[in-house]
């Protein structure tokens, strides 16, 4: 029995060998820290003491209005952000492919540039656009005799923020989907054209299925990203007004680095992680990629 | 002009508008770097500097900026090389090699991405201390090598490589290493290019980790060094923008030079042969 | 979506705003003209300056400093190295390693270092942040460094800032400063409201006067620049909550009970202040939607002549000067300082501040001893240091030199007047203070957007704050 096991393992040795180096670094810098973080979530840290808290942190969080509000806000952002990212980046990458190669590069660079632009500039530009008193958008509205709009109001802030985040995060998915597009053999399209397929037909029948693995990737990673939004929200709305845009990460950061309660912060991280894992698992199920071509 | 042509034209127009929206902050960053401090942050802004000045860049040169730049280049380039090699091996294994533990390992990798980095910062830092990585360039490179995001991405790309290609190679007597090196890697060039770009950018902009690890001013990376120029007295936005421009330019250059690997149809002929 | 690990300069705006506005009282960014002079008052250190032969074994200290301190001919932050050289000359067995930390993320770096036992020996920062390190037990008490004489000389509000509730002095009292209001005098005069400007030696004024000024300027602006308003209130985040605290003090309100265990934001006077703020919005005397304004916007608008009054201090005056030098300001712009208004005509409110060095307890007796010598040396044995700090001196020693800037001279007198000038309650010593700040600004936002009445908001705040304080006290052993 054991011998058979070893035999099998020997046959599978290349699987392990190729993944070993990554696994080593991963164990050091991810696995151990994750386990440590989970452990810490069962402790209570205050200014004066730290002690075992069992599930105390979790209980307290699940009863905390502000935390629950942040969960709701975060989910709202995810629901708006992820489908929008998927649809827009997919359509955009297809349309970019219609241009000549040179122009393709230009467009991809353009969409990706926000990723390398200082976040201060990005915030500034949006403040210029959205500034209630002197901003460009309200100025344009004024030309048409429309009242000024407060884009960061209690009701609108979360939508505005999501739109802003979209503009700076489409670059990555577009690059990725474009790369995946490049991996689809042109011959497939030629065969379809011979069969008389229209533009849309071609893309729905060929592009979509062939890009499933990559689309799954974009879905999962943009979900994770949306759940972990922090920096831009901090600069834009600081979670306000009155908690309208407070995300889980915002609270986590406050708890860990301002209040010094790492235990509670890590408990938030664990809860967040569990939520994401569930959603990601559903996404994997929905976009199964076991079909080989 | 029929209907579908019109739609295409309109969409191309929309694309151009979107492009302007995306480019403006970058343009503004560059133009502000040539403005004197008090003008830089005016609303409504000056669209082009009315009195352009090189002052901010001169101030930058007066600091260690050149050394910081080189440090960043070294760290990011090394990280990118290491990551491309190690993650491509791991991705190949998880995408194409059938072994039972593979699925499990893959889920651990993906699962690890769900914990926010902020919660891992302190334990990761402690490990860096244990391994004597504080205040070293290695301290910036090594922790970045196991990049679940990159492994996940490459694995998805590699999954689209048709199995027949690998099968026929095996039948021709190719070793696993050979398959990886001579078939998988060339076929995954778009994916590898994407990984390279993302890793380079991520490593270059990884401000918080650089802040924690580096102690000596001469060893600082560019983003970190520029941050130390900001004193409490008054916000020199022009200088900051100049710093940001210098920080972002290399990344843009890398991006543009890696573009050629994205060319469509690279896999033409791979299947039918 | 590419993964952005921990944000780029995300704290830039926030932290810079804190330091620009002297957020709750740090004094080290008031620029002064500095010339060598002879110190008139003597400040005797309480430890001997001579070294004992037996302490000759080599000691290495790690010193973290933000990029601050400079003499006029130096770049910001350069003086730190000068100070170290002087100190090492006197104590040749000690080596001090200087590490500069940026404002962006500096606090996080210290926190991570503390949590991983890799903290420096000496840190130079302001109360607020240092108070939280001290409360967690990371710092070394400095009471033994100050004599009775010194303690008597130091202004009360500075002492309060550097002392914990049990009397421990955790930060070295130094670098006196103030944050108050800045007025665009020229704009006010153009609006014909020169008569309501603050007057008298100390430039005190009443809240009524202040409002009259706003009304007059607004009338003027309606004709000339209808999109402008006289004043910008902010409420985007907790930075700048001191603005509201200052006016509460102006109305005569106290924010905490004397035993420091209860929050009293819902007292009559404090609620009056909040109601008054709301009335400013309703009367359209301030920019609308304050809940979307970051504190930094106040500075920018003021310099761009879009407001007539702003919250600030010397940094703002310098920003105005710089804008004039760079040609961004056309026309007359005379900026003057004034305390916050109060209900009494001869009384004013300022946000005071002081306190810098802290020593972290890394368990090494010898290092602590020399760290204490270091900070003692800087403050009492190096005449250039108090000038390089670009702040006023807590002992009243002259830092302005032979040709002082008149505004700076005026401010130096203001911050030492204890009869007519109230320095607001710094409140860093309150248990759980930083958490209460995070709860305060959403309540103000609720008032601004009309979701709650001022009394209700302050009562809700007190409830939450008291719970935070209670829990924090309970977790103390």
Automatic annotation (TrEMBL), chain B:
Concerning CDD domains, the annotation shows:
TM_PBP2
Q: Name one GO biological process term.
A: transmembrane transport
Q: Does the keyword Membrane apply?
A: yes
Q: Where in the cell is it found?
A: Cell membrane
Kindly state one GO CC term assigned in the UniProt record. Answer: plasma membrane
Q: Which InterPro entries match?
A: MetI-like, MetI-like_sf
Cross-referenced Gene3D superfamilies: MetI-like
Q: Which positions fall inside the ABC transmembrane type-1 domain?
A: 69-258
SUPFAM superfamilies, per database record? MetI-like
Q: Which UniProt keywords apply?
A: Cell membrane, Membrane, Transmembrane, Transmembrane helix, Transport
Q: Which ranges does the record mark as transmembrane?
A: 7-28, 68-92, 104-125, 137-158, 179-201, 237-258
**What is the membrane topology here?**
Multi-pass membrane protein
Q: Tell me yes or no: is Cell membrane among this UniProt entry's keywords.
A: yes
Question: Record's superkingdom?
Answer: Bacteria
The family database entries (PANTHER family) matched by this protein are listed as:
ABC TRANSPORTER PERMEASE PROTEIN MG189-RELATED, ABC TRANSPORTER PERMEASE PROTEIN MG189-RELATED-RELATED
Family membership: Belongs to the binding-protein-dependent transport system permease family.
What is the name listed in the Swiss-Prot or TrEMBL entry for this protein?
Sugar ABC transporter permease
According to its UniProt entry, this protein's organism is: Paenibacillus agaridevorans
Q: What is the lineage of its organism?
A: Bacteria, Bacillati, Bacillota, Bacilli, Bacillales
């Amino acid at each position: 029995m054991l011998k058979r096991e070893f035999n099998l393992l020997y046959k599978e040795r290349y699987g392990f060998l190729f993944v070993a180096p990554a696994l080593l670094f991963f164990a050091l810098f991810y696995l151990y820290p994750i386990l440590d973080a989970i452990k810490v979530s069962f402790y209570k840290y205050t200014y004066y003491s730290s002690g075992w808290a069992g599930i105390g942190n979790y209980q307290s969080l699940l009863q905390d209005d502000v935390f629950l509000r942040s969960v709701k806000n975060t989910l709202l952002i995810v629901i708006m952000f992820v489908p929008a990212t998927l649809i827009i980046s997919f359509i955009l990458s297809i349309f970019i492919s219609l241009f000549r190669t040179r122009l393709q590069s230009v467009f991809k660079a353009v969409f990706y540039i926000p990723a390398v632009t200082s976040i201060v500039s990005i915030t500034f530009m949006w403040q210029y656009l959205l500034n209630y008193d002197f901003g460009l958008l309200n100025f344009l509205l004024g030309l048409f005799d429309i009242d000024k709009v407060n884009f960061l109001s209690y009701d609108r802030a979360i939508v505005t923020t999501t739109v802003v985040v979209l503009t700076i995060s489409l670059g990555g998915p577009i690059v990725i989907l474009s790369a995946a597009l490049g991996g689809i053999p042109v011959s497939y399209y030629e065969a379809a054209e011979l069969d008389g397929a229209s533009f849309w037909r071609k893309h729905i029948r060929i592009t979509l299925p062939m890009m499933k693995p990559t689309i799954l990737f974009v879905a999962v990673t943009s979900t994770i990203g949306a759940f972990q939004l922090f920096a831009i929200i901090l600069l834009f709305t600081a979670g306000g007004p009155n908690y309208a845009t407070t995300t889980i990460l915002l609270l986590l950061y406050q708890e860990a680095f301002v209040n010094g309660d790492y235990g509670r912060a890590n408990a938030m991280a664990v809860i967040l992680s569990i939520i994401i894992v569930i959603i990601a698992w559903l996404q994997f199920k929905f976009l199964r990629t076991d079909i080989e071509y | 002009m029929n209907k579908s042509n019109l739609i295409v034209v309109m969409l191309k127009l929309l694309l151009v508008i979107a492009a302007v929206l995306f480019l403006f902050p970058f343009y503004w960053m560059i133009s502000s770097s040539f403005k004197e401090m008090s003008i830089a942050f005016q609303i409504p802004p000056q669209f082009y500097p009315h009195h352009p000045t090189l002052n901010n860049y001169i101030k930058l040169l007066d600091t260690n900026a050149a050394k910081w730049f080189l440090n960043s280049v070294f760290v990011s380039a090394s990280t990118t090389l290491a990551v491309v090699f190690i993650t491509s091996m791991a991705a190949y294994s998880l995408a194409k090699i059938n072994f039972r533990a593979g699925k499990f390992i893959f889920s651990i990798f993906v699962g690890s991405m769900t914990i926010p980095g902020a919660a891992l910062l302190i334990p990761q830092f402690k490990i860096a201390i244990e391994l004597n990585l504080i205040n070293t360039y290695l301290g910036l490179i090594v922790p970045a090598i196991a990049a679940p995001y990159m492994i996940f991405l490459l694995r998805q790309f590699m999954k689209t490589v048709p199995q027949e290609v690998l099968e026929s190679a095996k039948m021709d007597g190719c070793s696993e290493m050979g398959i990886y090196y001579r078939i998988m890697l060339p076929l995954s060039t778009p994916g590898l290019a994407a990984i390279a770009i993302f890793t380079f950018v991520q490593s270059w902009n990884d401000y918080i980790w650089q802040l924690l690890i580096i102690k000596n001013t001469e060893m600082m990376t560019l983003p970190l060094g520029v941050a130390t120029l900001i004193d409490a007295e008054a916000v020199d936005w022009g200088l900051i923008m100049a710093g940001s421009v210098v920080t972002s330019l290399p990344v843009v250059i890398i991006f543009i030079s890696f573009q050629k690997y994205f060319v469509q149809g690279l896999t033409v002929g791979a299947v039918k042969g | 979506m590419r993964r952005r690990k921990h944000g780029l300069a995300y704290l830039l705006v926030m932290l810079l705003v804190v330091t620009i506005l002297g957020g709750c009282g740090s004094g080290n960014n008031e620029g002064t003209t500095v010339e060598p002079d002879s110190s008139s008052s003597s400040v005797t250190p309480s430890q001997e300056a001579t070294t004992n032969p037996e302490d000759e074994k080599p000691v290495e200290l790690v010193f973290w400093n933000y990029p601050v301190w400079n003499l006029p001919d130096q770049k910001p932050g350069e003086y730190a190295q000068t100070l170290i050289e002087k100190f090492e000359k006197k104590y040749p067995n000690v080596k001090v390693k200087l590490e500069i930390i940026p404002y962006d993320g500096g606090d996080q770096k210290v926190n991570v270092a503390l949590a991983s036992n890799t903290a420096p020996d000496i840190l130079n920062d302001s109360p607020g942040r240092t108070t939280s390190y001290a409360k967690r037990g990371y710092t070394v008490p400095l009471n033994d460094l100050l004599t009775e004489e010194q303690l008597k000389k130091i202004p009360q509000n500075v002492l309060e800032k550097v002392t914990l509730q049990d009397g421990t002095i955790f930060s070295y009292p130094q670098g006196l400063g103030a944050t108050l209001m800045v007025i665009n005098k020229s704009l006010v005069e153009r609006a014909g409201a020169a008569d309501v400007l603050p007057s008298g030696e100390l430039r005190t004024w009443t809240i009524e006067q202040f409002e009259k000024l706003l009304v007059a300027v607004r009338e003027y602006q309606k004709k000339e620049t209808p999109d402008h308003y006289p004043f910008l209130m902010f409420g985007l985040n907790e930075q700048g909550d001191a603005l509201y605290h200052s006016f509460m003090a102006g109305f005569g309100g106290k924010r905490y009970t004397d035993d420091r265990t209860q929050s009293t934001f819902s007292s009559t006077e404090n609620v009056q202040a909040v109601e008054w703020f709301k009335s400013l919005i309703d009367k359209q005397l301030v920019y609308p939607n304050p809940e979307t304004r970051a504190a930094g916007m106040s500075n920018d608008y003021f310099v761009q002549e879009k407001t007539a009054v702003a919250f600030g201090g010397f940094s703002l005056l310098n920003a105005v000067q710089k804008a004039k030098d760079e040609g961004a300001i056309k026309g007359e712009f005379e900026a003057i300082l004034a305390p916050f208004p109060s209900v009494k005509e001869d009384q004013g409110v300022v946000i005071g501040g002081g306190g810098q060095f802290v020593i972290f307890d890394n368990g090494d007796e010898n290092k602590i001893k020399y760290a204490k010598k270091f900070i003692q040396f800087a403050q009492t044995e190096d005449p250039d240091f108090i000038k390089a700090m670009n702040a006023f001196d807590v002992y009243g020693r002259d830092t302005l030199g032979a040709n002082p800037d008149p505004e700076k001279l005026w401010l130096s007198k203001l911050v030492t007047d204890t009869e007519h000038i109230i320095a607001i309650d710094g409140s860093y010593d309150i248990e759980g203070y930083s958490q209460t700040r995070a709860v305060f600004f959403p309540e103000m936002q609720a008032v601004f957007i009309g979701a709650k009445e001022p009394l209700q908001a302050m009562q809700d705040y007190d409830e939450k704050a008291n719970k935070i304080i209670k829990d924090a006290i309970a977790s103390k052993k």
